[in-house]
Specification:
single chain; alpha/beta; Rossmann fold; 10-stranded mixed beta sheet; 19% strand; elongated
Length: 301
């Protein structure tokens, strides 16, 4: 999948500007065109502001709308001046619901990648129903959500592999995003057998240790075979972690100083996912660095 069209959604916040700076670096590396989109909610109807006893003349109402649009257009032009440079950058102002506007313009543009900024931190970020969560679930192409820690370029990516239908295209897209000089690591989180149960079954501690070691080695062989079959760059490496998947992913990302975490955006199909969210949801809520989501609709593109 070639990266030729990149869409960045901006609300002119510091977070969305950080996403734009990252998008510019990606666009340069891939030779892609860049669209900076601001989606503004439709203005209220005149009847909502012309109430008795107050009255707003229609001419003043129109003037307020015009001034508002001019300010937005100036802000977009300012972003083009500061970030355009040697990148083909087009600013766009669209009147719509924010989520519908982003998804609709991405479809019209046939975008290959969407970038959004993030706000806040911890559990307050990307709760279900947020703009990022809804865009991630409705997007037809991969989506990068920039984390609160400013990232100006992506050179090291950690790809979470669970061998679902998302894993292969997500890893391949990440490799393309990094280019020939980047470093890619595939990580599988293994649910290690419960030690107490193994002790009751195997008895001897040596046998228990050997069984766990052999299990881990088997997981590593499977991951290396997965990487080999995709013919990933020589810089790609493999790692098997254990424990809670989001926690293990964050720990490894910190150890390797990764610039990007890559996960598949799974649909919700179990009761536990409805209650606590998918791995992708939980990674989004707490990641300090950008997260690349590969949504279900991107699989057919």
């Amino acid at each position: 999948m070639a990266i030729g069209q990149i869409l960045v959604a901006t609300d002119f916040s510091e977070a969305s500007e950080a996403a734009l700076a990252l998008a510019v670096r990606i666009a340069r590396r891939c030779g892609a065109r860049l669209t900076v989109l601001h989606v503004d909610a439709p203005p209220p109807a005149l009847g909502l502001v012309a109430t008795d006893p107050a009255y707003t003349p229609p001419q003043l109402f129109e003037l307020l709308h015009r001034d508002h649009d001019l300010r937005l257009e100036r802000d977009l032009d300012d972003l083009k001046t500061r970030y355009g440079g040697d990148v083909d950058l087009t600013p766009v102002l669209r009147r719509a619901d924010v989520v519908d506007g982003i998804l609709g313009h991405a479809q019209e543009l046939e975008a290959d990648l969407i970038l959004l900024g993030s706000r806040g931190g911890g559990a307050t970020r990307f709760l279900l129903g947020s703009v990022a969560s809804k865009v991630a679930r409705g997007a037809h192409c991969p989506l990068i959500v920039a984390g609160p820690r400013k990232t100006t370029d992506i050179r090291r990516a950690l790809v979470a592999v669970d061998y679902s239908r998302f894993s292969r295209p997500a890893a391949q897209f990440a490799a393309q995003l990094l280019g020939s000089d980047g470093r890619l690591e595939l990580m599988h989180v293994w649910h290690e057998p419960h030690l107490a149960a193994l002790e009751r079954t195997l008895g001897e501690r040596d046998e228990l240790t050997n069984a766990v070691r052999e299990g881990r080695e088997g997981q590593m062989r499977a991951l290396r075979l997965f990487a080999h079959e995709m013919d990933l760059p020589a810089a790609a490496s493999c790692y098997v972690g254990t424990g809670d998947p989001p926690s293990a992913i964050f720990s490894r990302a910190k150890q390797t100083d990764a610039d990007l975490i890559v996960v598949g955006a799974h649909s919700r199909d179990t009761v536990s996912e409805y209650l606590v969210g998918t791995v992708a949801d939980r990674v989004l809520r707490h990641a300090e660095i950008p997260v690349l989501l590969f949504p279900e609709d991107a699989l057919s593109n």
